[in-house]
């Protein structure tokens, strides 16, 4: 996407998730003229981050498919996530 300038359509497509794309379209359509560039820039950044995350995920999946460890240092956050979930449940959250 870096070769082509971003458009409303390309941002919508890059977001992937229909609900997120609808939220973007709603915000861009309701933005006053003086805020339009700010709203566009915000969603362009979100679209770029989304595409980058998808690319990283696909590269990691390639390593997984070959039965290899992905490069770099990885921190297993499972225990932290489980502890946080238990803490939230203890406060009565569903």
Verbal overview:
The protein is mainly α. It contains four helices and no strands. The protein has helices at 8-15, 18-30, 36-65, 78-90. The longest helix has 30 residues, at 36-65.
- The end-to-end distance, rounded to whole angstroms, is 40 Å
Query: Percent of residues in helical segments?
Result: 55-70%
Global morphology? flat
Strand content: under 5%
The topology string of helices and strands comes to HHHH
- Tally of DSSP helical segments: 4
The total count of strands amounts to 0
Please identify the oligomeric state. Answer: single chain
Biggest sheet statistics: none
The averaged pLDDT comes out at 91
| Class derived from helix and strand content | mainly alpha
Low-confidence stretches: none
Computed over alpha carbons, the radius of gyration is: 19 Å
Q: What's the topology here?
A:
Elements: H1 8-15, H2 18-30, H3 36-65, H4 78-90
Give the key terms.
single chain, 94 residues, mainly alpha, 4 helices, 68% helix
In brief:
Helix content is 68%, strand content 0%.
